[in-house]
Amino acid sequence: MKAAARTVQDLEFRQLIERIKLALPIEEVVAVRVPALKRAGSILKACCPFHDEKHPSFTVTPSRGTWRCFGACAEGGDAISFVEKFDGVPFWEAVQELAQSAGIELPKRGAKSSDDPRLAAMNEGLERAQALYARKLKSAEGAPARAYLAERGLSDLAIDSFGLGWAPTGNVLVQGATSAGFKLDGLVDAGLARRRDDGSAYDFFRSRLMIPIRDHLGRMAGFGARLLPGVEGPKYVNTPETPLFKKGRMFYGLDAALESVRSERHLLLMEGYTDVIAAHACGLPIAAAVLGTATTEDHARLVRRTGARRVTLVFDADNAGRKAVTKALTGLLTLDAVEIDVVSLPEGQDPCDFLIANGAPAFRELLAAAVGWFDFLVEGLIGLEPEAVAAGVAELLEVLCGLESAVDRDLRLGRLAERLGLSTEALRSDFSAIVAARKRYASRARPATRSGAGETAAPRSGASESAGAGHARTPGRGPQGTAGEPWPEPLPGDGEENLDASPEALAGGSASGAAVVRSGATMASRQREFQQFKRELKVVGQLLGALLWDNSLIPVHRDLLVTLVASGTPADDAARGAREGSERVWVEVPKALIELIEELIRTYDNTDDEITAVGLAAALGDHEARPMVFKAEGLAELATDKAELARDAARFLDGSALARSKRLRLETLERIAVENPSEENQNRLLRTAQELHPLHELAKAEAHELAKAEAHELPEASELQPGERS
Fold it and tell me: Which end of the chain has less Cβ packing within 10 Å, N or C?
């Protein structure tokens, strides 16, 4: 019964993924993030967004629904894997992103922000709080807040659309949660409550207008809380930083604006919550706001995900507004092919006031007259006192450091000197001093990477942080591709490069590891067997890729697939002994690869439909084997004769298994002869060695290497640094 239920769930999941992909063709998903994508016959091409290159090696094949880099990355996948890699998000967040773009509602399991019970409790606490605050706004206690919102010109529809609320005095939230049996830890972790020294809890927000802040997928993250006019205290208080709420990684209102921004390719960035609400209420649903902080690389990543080609900064016309523009530019200047301009509002009006008084048509006229960010900042310096000009120029030079193009920086320095009547040499000198100061600061802040006596060398970079909001990778880029072995990856215990892991780790944690690395082997033999293991897994990938390209080959090689699955089951001592005496000992396939093969066999046995990489990946969902599907497809893509590739792969694996069996047989007899050096055992060993003469010579050579290693105390293979390995 459970198996049947799971089958139904798997079918529903596959159908959901297919609906999303049908609604969003892969070329549209990629083009939003890679504007340079151009059609070249039946495919589309561009320079790869995941590594630097001059000639396009990145392709999108609409007919198959896949993308692939034929350059340094040597990677590929479907629309979901592209969003995962480009946006730096986990599988389910990529699915949510695409579903939202396609207007498809996900089932509850897809809407969860995390399987972490702590995050789930935080999310539930935030949702409960938002519902409570919304009710309180409509009660008698919320009358003063409703009066303030009416004075700002915000309608009931706008208030309800953005979920505004009122946090009353007292401990209403804590008391309500306690009565409902909700654990207060969820409220405390979400920043909604605080604990006293005695352990009791109290509401953090009191007597404030509450503005819910959601992430770009519409999930509750925190609140902005405003005091009403005339009340003393900090005007705004935000939720403190939590795992769900990070000001440097989100825009207010982007969840409501996302669809329109993607349609218009235009994003308005404003300064205040009410500015955004007024813009949406007046018919400008492309507005969002920075949460009172300078923009970051994560903000730039979000802008890329919207597909916007124009970002307009809309801030107050006073000096504070100009400073806000400077802060907003900090992280956005790294955006490629995105125009950034600034709207100047009439003196004394903020965006909310202007929109309520004049409406969207008048505001669109201002947008049409927007000026480029550089001209806006320079214009603000003209006519100021020398001290103010010097301070403003210093700020502008700091902003120019964010430009990646040296030519662009130099041209703007020349324009700045011309507009302000300054010396170009002086500006360049000041700019160079700022750059040098930044480098000195960065060098001091960078952790030491040298390893001395008693120290541990810094780990190789390349492994990203755990998926989710905490990604710290370059916006729009996944980990830099390497020209190294593209298969197998990922493997249990594997790092960025397969040589960075010990052979035992690559064995997938098998009980004996005998088929991969022998515990008593010398360094040279360990490395030789390790390289053979990698070659065999690559050939397994080529075989699977050929079967995906030509499904008629699956029944031909089905028995081999079943054998490979069986080979990956950890063996106990008795089973190992039987295997060592068997005709063939196959490579121990890692668990993730086993489950991929099992899914391929299961799909073939239960459907008459064509089995593609995209379909198999959809069946695997967020399983760790999912990326392997596209790697396998890529390994076989360039082969002109897929049947011949499959035959050669099967022949190689069979020969390798036979050789391993003979080697293990010899090792077994050697061990027996050492443990019991009887004449019979010595004769058996001699006869076997004569039959397997090349292997016998190899065994003698390894014994010689072992003696040398013991004499010179050579390090074990697992202790070698990557550059020291052969």
Answer: N
